[in-house]
Design brief:
Elements lengths: L17 H9 L7 H4 L1 H5 L5 E11 L2 E10 L8 E6 L6 H13 L9 E5 L4 H6 L21 H10 L6 E9 L3 H14 L13 E5 L5 H11 L13 E2 L2 E2 L5 E4 L1 H4 L10 E7 L8 H21 L4
Parallel strand pairs: 3-4, 3-5, 5-10, 6-9
Antiparallel strand pairs: 1-2, 2-4, 6-10, 7-8
Keywords: Hydrolase, Metal-binding, Zinc
InterPro entries: AstE_AspA_cat, Peptidase_M14
GO molecular function, one term: zinc ion binding
């Protein structure tokens, strides 16, 4: 049992219908602009990279172009590295970390790897600092056939021609205090379930694929990040957000079964980063730097690994 107050939309024990979802959507107001924060940064990359629009989100009255950034001299003989950010729009360092990587480190991999970077998969959520899309759907549970989330379907279509050639996919996320105060209570209310409070880990951690675990890869990424910010410890149950810790700062999920973004590429090496921006021990810039360190370590590991 929990004494947590119920989310202020819907009826306890009853999943939301169209009316409740419309009520929720009406509460979501823009707090920042994708056109101001993200699009100019992407546009500034055109001199060094190929920038292409791979789709458009249509949430009337708003429309959002979706952009991908590729290596200029794409070489099919080289391994491809996929970086995705902003699957959850509220997770700021996922977006800013991907952009910072492109601005400061991506050129180092010219001639060594093909890079495909999608900095902001969910611009509607980015503007509203929201986990879900406008239809109250979590894009990061929607990477599946006939996806109900336009964001997920568009990214899947972009990546589909490259499946089998992608060596590494890193998906950039955050775990925030609002996961407990807003997003998990909203999820429980939407699905007509009771909200059970949990603990937010203080620090950086990774999510590996339980169906394709790559522990040495995860360890290498965490080792690089640890030079930038602290790694989240396990709680008293030996868990992070309810999952057993299989190595310091590493948990596992069945990525494809859960419809998570890191399953979309079919890559051998996959990981989902989780930065904690609300920690008193980390600044926003440290969070961005941690994402960049994770990207570079992931690419470096995949480049050094034997190909078979």
């Amino acid at each position: 049992m929990t004494n947590a107050p119920f989310y202020p939309i819907g009826t306890p024990g009853q999943p939301w219908g169209a009316a409740e979802k419309a009520q929720w959507r009406a509460r979501q107001v823009p707090q920042r602009r994708h056109a101001d924060d993200v699009l100019p940064a992407v546009d500034a990359l055109r001199d060094a990279f190929d920038v292409s629009q791979y789709g458009t989100l249509d949430y009337a009255p708003d429309q959002y172009p979706l952009f991908a950034v590729r290596s200029r001299d794409w070489n099919p003989a080289l391994p491809t590295m996929l970086v995705t950010g902003g699957i959850h729009g509220y997770e700021t360092s996922g977006v800013q970390g991907a952009l910072q990587f492109l601005q400061t480190r991506a050129a180092e991999y010219a001639g060594r790897a093909n890079l495909l970077v999608v900095p902001c998969v969910s611009p509607w959520g980015y503007e509203r600092i929201q986990r879900w899309n406008a239809d109250a759907i979590d894009p990061n549970r929607s990477f599946m056939a006939n996806s109900p989330a336009a964001e997920s379907a568009a990214l899947m279509a972009l990546v589909a021609p490259l499946r089998g050639s992608i060596a590494m996919h890193i998906d950039l996320h955050e775990t925030t205090d609002t996961d407990e105060t807003e997003f998990r209570p909203a999820l429980a209310a939407r699905d007509g379930k009771p909200f059970e409070p949990g603990l937010i880990p203080d620090g950086f951690y990774l999510v590996d694929d339980s169906e394709n675990p790559q522990p040495a890869f995860q360890t290498a990424v965490n080792a690089a990040v640890e030079r930038v910010t602290h790694i989240a410890p396990a709680d008293e149950k030996g868990e992070i957000i309810g999952s057993p810790v299989v190595a310091p700062g590493v948990i596992e999920y069945p990525l494809e079964k859960l419809g998570l973004c890191a399953s979309v590429s079919g890559a051998r090496y996959t990981t989902t980063t989780e930065v904690y921006p609300d920690s008193p021990r980390a600044t926003p810039q440290q969070c961005n730097d941690a994402q960049v360190a994770a990207i570079c370590a992931a690419i470096d590991y995949a480049l050094a690994a034997p190909r078979n």
